[in-house]
Structure formats: C-alpha cells, structure tokens
Amino acid sequence: MELGQMVNGTTVTEFILLGFGVGPQERFLLLIFFAILYVVTLAENLTIIILVVLDTHLSRLPMYILLSNFSLLEISYVSTTVPRLIFDLASPQGVISFTDCFLQFYLLFSLGTSEDLLLSAMALDRYLAICHPLRYPQIMSPDFCFALVIVCWGLGFTAYIIPVTMISKLSFCGPNVIDHFLCDAETVLALACPPLGVTPYVCQMFLNIFILSVVVFIVVSYGTVIVTLMKPSFKGSRRKAFSTISFHLIVVTLFYGSIAAIYICPEGENQVEVTKAITLFYTSITPFLNPMIYCLRNDQVKEALGRLRRRKVSLLGRNIAL
C-alpha cells in the first residue's frame, strides 16, 4: 500500500493542525510572543556558541565544548517547531503536507534524542571531573569530546528512522485533523486506520529504551557526584562543584520533568490542552531558559565575555589609529 493510502484508494496528502483554538486577537498576541521568544532564544544560544568558538580558553574545556553543541542542538530543536507555529498563527488554516508532517515528527524526535544523549555526556563530564580529577584531563580530551558529540548526533538521527518509516507506511483513512500544534508519534498514530500491527509497540519500545537508559545513567552519574562531594576526604571547592552541577540538574529536571508530566497527566476533558501546554514548554520555553541557567553566575563565561569585549575594543582602537 502506498504512503498514506486510504481504503477507498485516495491518498492523504495533508493534515490540519488545530493549534490552540483561540480567537484572532489572542492568535495575534501569541504570534508576537513566539516571534520574540524565538529570536531571543536564537540570540542566547548563538552567543554561547560564538563565545566558546572565539575564546581560546573556553574552546579547550570539555564542559564548554559540550555546552556549545548543546546550544546548537537547542537552536535546531526550537527551529523544528516554533517557525511552523508562528506560520500557523499567521495563517489560520493550519494545513501541513504529509511529507512535512513526518519530517517535523522525525526531526523533533531525533533532535530530542540527541539532546538526551548530550545531557548524559555532560553528566559523564561532571562525574569524571569531580570523582576522577587526576584522570579527567587524559580521558576528557578535546578529541574524545568531539567523538562524544558525533555519537550523540549520530545515534539521535538513526534511532527513529525505523519508527518513523513504520508509521509513514500505515494506511490513513481519515479524518486528517490533528488536535495539536505539531506532528508527533501519538497524534499521527491516532489518525491511522487499523490494522496498526506492531507499529505502536515498536515506537513505544524505542522511546522507553532511550529515555529510561539515559535517565538512569544521568541519575547514577549525578548521584555518585553528590556522594563524592559529601565525603570528608573530598579535596576542592564543594561550593563551586555544587553550584556547577545544580545548574545541570535544573536543566535535566526541566527537560525530563516536562516529558514525564505528559505520561502522568490524568485523562479527562482537558487532557489535550494540558498536553499542548507541556509540549509547548519543553519545545519552546526550555531552549529559552537553558542558556540563562547555564550562564547565570558563571564566572568563566563572564571572564570570557570580558576578554572578548577587550579584544573588540583593542581591534577598534587599532582601526582608528590606522
């Protein structure tokens, strides 16, 4: 059967995203809000990337190599959903083609999985830095960091090829209305007509394996770090170490807390609206908050900004002198 083929022989060529179901005035206010949010999110994450690339000190530190790639992921992640959301707010029809819907679904889950894996790599970095400080420089070399980044991106983009392909080959026999502002596995599967076969179970299995394995790894890593910091034999600044991992834990809690909220959300009349709100939070709000959380009260970032500012002033002075 062809992609999206219906029982009567016709083919689903597009879906309709209902979005938030608000009036024109609220739609306009939301459009302005998300447009500003998107631009600020891009600016924040681009600032971190540029700062790490241009500063010779930060560019050699494993934590900031991973952080700059995390910012790149955040830019990609938010760009998968927010521009489409802004377009649909400006154009109330909410029509999205079959191909674009599955592309958004694939990119959303692939980038989300890459972000999961990169968060676990950052947890590994903090574990090695605090629990094995003598071996840390040898293990977390720049080459090893870049290899970790490649693995995170690579696994993220290969993990969901099978589930997305399996869903795309299902028969869609109408209706084609999605009560959401984006395409994801649950909303698209709800429109597929029986028999669904093993597709829902395969999708859930892939999702559970990745999320649970990453969460367990992160919990064990940070748990070991906290135990190490509490030991009387620990040598170093506990306050600085706790400050660093606290920012990491806030980001992890925001990301996985919002995902967990979708699963524990009670069924009822408002379930769809609550799901939209939670999805909106982890696809749009957290990429905006994360740069501020990581860089808030971060002395190394402040020092790098100072060095970059002084370099800019120095270059301007030379140009004026010439």
How far do the termini sit from each other?
71 Å
Number of DSSP-assigned strands: 3
Mean pLDDT across every amino acid position: 84
Radius of gyration: 22 Å
Helical run tally: 11
Strand content: under 5%
Shape: globular
Strand order of the largest sheet: 2-1-3
Low confidence ranges: 1-10
Largest β sheet strand count, sense and barrel closure: 3 strands, mixed
Structural class: mainly alpha
Description:
The chain has 322 residues and is mostly helical. Helices cover 73% and strands 3% of the residues. The protein has eleven helices and three strands. It has helices at 24-54, 62-90, 98-131, 136-139, 142-159, 161-168, 185-189, 199-230, 238-264, 271-295, 299-321, and strands spanning 14-17, 95-97, 177-178. Strands 2-1-3 form a three-stranded mixed beta sheet. The protein is globular, with a radius of gyration of 22 Å. Residues 1-10 have low confidence and may be disordered.
How would the blueprint of this fold be written?
Layout: E1 14-17, H1 24-54, H2 62-90, E2 95-97, H3 98-131, H4 136-139, H5 142-159, H6 161-168, E3 177-178, H7 185-189, H8 199-230, H9 238-264, H10 271-295, H11 299-321
Parallel strand pairs: 1-3
Antiparallel strand pairs: 1-2
Short description:
By secondary structure, the chain is mainly α. It is built from eleven helices and three strands, in the order βααβααααβααααα.
Q: Which key terms come to mind for this protein?
A:
single chain; 3% strand; 3 strands; three-stranded mixed sheet; mainly alpha; 11 helices; 322 residues
